[in-house]
Design a protein that fits this description.
The protein is α+β, with helices and mostly antiparallel strands. The chain has five helices and seven strands; from the N terminus they run βαααβββαβαββ. It has a seven-stranded mixed beta sheet, with helices on both faces. Helix 1 packs across helix 3.
């Protein structure tokens, strides 16, 4: 599959909302499904517009040749003064685009952004049962740094998360 990775644009908002809805509906349960739903297309558009003026975060998309968005990665610097060298990552890839290099390319965009922004460490949370995502992060070079018991609320229960990190050099 041919695709390109680029910065998200406010005009991507509707497609990104549809992508988030599709990914969050999967039984593996992406993190946004815990809160119930992704932001509206209007809210996503406003978020992406505001992001243009904010140097401490970015959103990247993977776009097929036909213009379809098949991946989204957000990265944002930790606001705490003692950990501004750390950035949080969120990744989603459309089901039919997985295992085709999309996730890896988006993660590389986060590393490149981090290097330019002076970020030394990328971190993310992943559900313990999301074996495909864990395999991607392991293969990319993320390391497990912790296990967060009952860290997120999902429906009426609390679920665990694995904390993984990548050292940007």
């Amino acid at each position: 599959m041919d695709f390109l990775v680029r910065h998200a644009d406010p005009s991507d908002a509707e497609q990104l909302t549809l992508l988030a809805d599709a990914v969050s509906a999967e039984p593996e349960g992406w993190l946004i499904s815990i809160a119930g739903e992704w932001r509206s297309a209007g809210d996503e558009r406003r978020f992406l517009k505001a992001l243009r003026r904010y140097a401490h975060a970015a959103v990247f998309v993977a776009e097929r040749e036909d213009g379809t968005l098949v991946g989204r990665l957000s990265v944002g610097r930790d606001p705490h003064p003692a950990s501004t060298h750390v950035a949080d990552v969120g990744l989603m890839v459309a089901l039919d685009a997985r295992r085709q290099g999309v996730g890896k390319a988006l993660l590389q965009a986060a590393v490149d952004w981090g290097r330019e922004a002076g970020v030394r460490k990328l971190e993310l949370h992943v559900f313990p049962w999301n074996e495909a995502a864990i395999a991607l992060y392991d293969a990319f070079g993320f390391e497990r740094e912790g296990y967060r018991k009952r860290h997120y609320r999902r429906g009426g229960e609390f679920v665990d998360a694995i904390l993984m990190a990548y050292e940007v050099e």
